[in-house]
Amino acid sequence: MQNYDYKLIFTDEVLLNLFPEDRSDQFFEALYADISEGAYDISLCFKNRIDNKLYFEFHLNQRQDKCLVCSLTYGLPEVFLRHPIIGLNNLVKRVESLLPEGIKCVDYELGNTKQLSNNLHIIRFIITCN
Question: Per the structure, how many domains does the chain have?
Answer without folding.
Answer: 1
